[in-house]
Amino acid sequence: MKMSEIWIYVENHFNRVDPSSLQLITKAKEIANGRQVTAVILEDHDQDFENTVKQYGPNQILLVKNDNLKNASDETITNVLVDLAQEQKPDTILFGATVTGRSLAPRIQGRLKTGLTADCLDLRFDDDLLVATKPSYGDNIMCEITCPKNKPQMATVRPNTFEAVVDGSSEPKINEVEVTVDVDPRVTVSDEQGSVSNTRSIGTAKRIIALGRGAQSESIIKKANELAGKIGAIVAVSRPLTDLPEFSHEQQIGQSGNTVAPDLIINLGISGAVQYVVGIQNAKTVVSVNTDPKAPIFDVSQYKYVGDAEAFLDGLIENV
Amino acid sequence: MKIIVCLKQVPETNNVKIDPVTHNLQRNGISGVINSFDVNAIEAALELKDRYGAEVVALTMGPPDYEKTLRLAMAMGANEGVLLSSRGFAGADTLATATVLAAAVNKIGGADLILFGRQAVDADTGQVGPLVAEKLDLPQYTYVSKLNLSSDGQIDAVRMLDGGTVRVNGDLPAVATVRSELNEPRYATPRNIKLSFKKDIVVYDEKDLDLDDSEIGQAGSPTIVTKVYTPTATPKVTETLEGSAKEAAQNLLTKLSEKSIL
Ligand SMILES: Cc1cc2nc3c(=O)[nH]c(=O)nc-3n(C[C@H](O)[C@H](O)[C@H](O)COP(=O)(O)OP(=O)(O)OC[C@H]3O[C@@H](n4cnc5c(N)ncnc54)[C@H](O)[C@@H]3O)c2cc1C
Ligand SMILES: Cc1cc2nc3c(=O)[nH]c(=O)nc-3n(C[C@H](O)[C@H](O)[C@H](O)COP(=O)(O)OP(=O)(O)OC[C@H]3O[C@@H](n4cnc5c(N)ncnc54)[C@H](O)[C@@H]3O)c2cc1C
């Protein structure tokens, strides 16, 4: 019998592999327990994402190279992935819970008539069953979800939940397949436009200075940028500050923004609403400054200072 | 032009508790409100109504009190409300939900555009829009922050990605899921609120939609929730930085450098 396989859909943007796909390869290997971990790459002839992917040590790379895959629509990618899945019958298919992953996975789920668990924070196998841990109600409730009767089992996994680890212990087998790419004629996708400050850099930043409604004056923003320059950090914001001309959704942390996982985050003038806190729960060291000694943000912080954000920022800039 | 807007009602608060005995979510006593992202979908539909005289149908699947959400949509300006309600629909996962919604779209006679919110704020999957698109074999425009329809049946949208944007365009009919960045929803006008209560709401069940029991509700749902729990956050030990702002900042820098964090 063919060995059961975990497929990871390798997403790419701006000619780079999305970090969430690499994180999933590492996680899948950790839980595989004898299953084959297969990275599925769809690319055009100018692209070579396999060179990046193989460093992370999947057992196998399933590669489709076809020029119709340049700027392919969700519909076209679905056509290709569903054909491959129906032919090769993977046991499990995983996607990053990115905008792309969350758009493609349900479309594929619908065609394969199977279950899909969204935005997972953990995965494991109980015998043959994939058990996916999914947060709900703004991460206040966790549930474990399985899909016992249908195959493949599918999940999207929140980016930056797991770490991607390079693994050179074995050379993955590259299995290039020829398929007809059935392009959906109804949709045209243009080139992707990167935002000036790439969110990717927020999602993967090692140091973040986060500003909230208690730290939104022009002088604070200027100083935060100055400090960020000195310590190699990135400035991010809570949702209310995305209304300021300096910031946009790209810098927003939280449930309806970005999940971050820095080594250090300094929260200035942020109250710590649950929708914000879910975005920083993978941060390693959390420092918060707030004039309100009862601010909920302190409950999730290792270091707290009760006082004025700007004065504290001045203190950091002077002494760093 | 006809637009269908799909709406979900969600608990008013995210502060949901688990029943210690049954391990089910305690939703009793929490009143339902429209999913906030769906208000942006209604606004998008109404802008097309203002511009092209489009007919706007609000559609929801849920218990009878979801009527409240349909009334809100009509108070904002939707022409009609359709409620999909039956005990048989209970316990649906996203696939079974989409099956019912897609059947209802067909029953209503299809539409040029079917609008969804970006995601429901409770279960938070964002899967229903793409699933309905797949079931109806329509192209999908997900997570859109800009959306234009032209009178000659074209759609032109900007999808917001995690690190940028991409323009997607093509032919109608289509499905779109909208982000809150798309628009500023209008308020209901007193006149429309009054009108909304004069309108009848159409109710369909599985028989009206010609659906088999095996496709709907729990039976039609491949996923099973096997465990529900409240995460026990490992309490963080919080160290207070004392003194003046300057002293506290210095103190922090020392500690961070001792731990090689900075
Ligand atoms: C469905 C939904 C999704 C949401 N998604 C997000 C999301 O993704 N991200 C997000 O951030 N929010 C989100 N929100 C909003 C969230 O609920 C909060 O409203 C928001 O996070 C508050 O931002 P804030 O902490 O900056 O502002 P506030 O809550 O107003 O807090 C400001 C803080 O600054 C302190 N302060 C005031 N002056 C000073 C000073 N001089 N020095 C130091 N501190 C000072 C105050 O004590 C206060 O604690 C969402 C809400 C909903 C309903
Ligand atoms: C705690 C919890 C976790 C869950 N996790 C999963 C899971 O991982 N996978 C899964 O398949 N199911 C899951 N479900 C079931 C899921 O919540 C239901 O299927 C629900 O009916 C639709 O999914 P959603 O709430 O995620 O909506 P989303 O897909 O997030 O909603 C997107 C949009 O679809 C439209 N829409 C959604 N529901 C309706 C409706 N009833 N009527 C009309 N329009 C609607 C709205 O426009 C909404 O903005 C979960 C349920 C719970 C309670």
Automatic annotation (TrEMBL), chain A:
<dbReference type="GO" id="GO:0033539">
    <property type="term" value="P:fatty acid beta-oxidation using acyl-CoA dehydrogenase"/>
</dbReference>
<feature type="domain" description="Electron transfer flavoprotein alpha/beta-subunit N-terminal">
    <location>
        <begin position="6"/>
        <end position="192"/>
    </location>
</feature>
<dbReference type="InterPro" id="IPR014731">
    <property type="entry name" value="ETF_asu_C"/>
</dbReference>
<keyword id="KW-0285">Flavoprotein</keyword>
<feature type="binding site">
    <location>
        <begin position="238"/>
        <end position="239"/>
    </location>
    <ligand>
        <name>FAD</name>
    </ligand>
</feature>
<dbReference type="GO" id="GO:0009055">
    <property type="term" value="F:electron transfer activity"/>
</dbReference>
<dbReference type="InterPro" id="IPR001308">
    <property type="entry name" value="ETF_a/FixB"/>
</dbReference>
<dbReference type="GO" id="GO:0050660">
    <property type="term" value="F:flavin adenine dinucleotide binding"/>
</dbReference>
<feature type="binding site">
    <location>
        <position position="213"/>
    </location>
    <ligand>
        <name>FAD</name>
    </ligand>
</feature>
<dbReference type="Pfam" id="PF00766">
    <property type="entry name" value="ETF_alpha"/>
</dbReference>
<dbReference type="InterPro" id="IPR029035">
    <property type="entry name" value="DHS-like_NAD/FAD-binding_dom"/>
</dbReference>
<dbReference type="Pfam" id="PF01012">
    <property type="entry name" value="ETF"/>
</dbReference>
<dbReference type="InterPro" id="IPR033947">
    <property type="entry name" value="ETF_alpha_N"/>
</dbReference>
<feature type="binding site">
    <location>
        <begin position="252"/>
        <end position="256"/>
    </location>
    <ligand>
        <name>FAD</name>
    </ligand>
</feature>
<comment type="similarity">
    <text>Belongs to the ETF alpha-subunit/FixB family.</text>
</comment>
<dbReference type="InterPro" id="IPR014730">
    <property type="entry name" value="ETF_a/b_N"/>
</dbReference>
<dbReference type="InterPro" id="IPR014729">
    <property type="entry name" value="Rossmann-like_a/b/a_fold"/>
</dbReference>
<protein>
    <submittedName>
        <fullName>Electron transfer flavoprotein subunit alpha</fullName>
    </submittedName>
</protein>
<keyword id="KW-0274">FAD</keyword>
<feature type="binding site">
    <location>
        <position position="290"/>
    </location>
    <ligand>
        <name>FAD</name>
    </ligand>
</feature>
Automatic annotation (TrEMBL), chain B:
<dbReference type="InterPro" id="IPR014730">
    <property type="entry name" value="ETF_a/b_N"/>
</dbReference>
<dbReference type="Pfam" id="PF01012">
    <property type="entry name" value="ETF"/>
</dbReference>
<dbReference type="InterPro" id="IPR033948">
    <property type="entry name" value="ETF_beta_N"/>
</dbReference>
<dbReference type="GO" id="GO:0009055">
    <property type="term" value="F:electron transfer activity"/>
</dbReference>
<protein>
    <recommendedName>
        <fullName>Electron transfer flavoprotein small subunit</fullName>
    </recommendedName>
</protein>
<dbReference type="InterPro" id="IPR014729">
    <property type="entry name" value="Rossmann-like_a/b/a_fold"/>
</dbReference>
<feature type="domain" description="Electron transfer flavoprotein alpha/beta-subunit N-terminal">
    <location>
        <begin position="22"/>
        <end position="213"/>
    </location>
</feature>
<dbReference type="InterPro" id="IPR012255">
    <property type="entry name" value="ETF_b"/>
</dbReference>
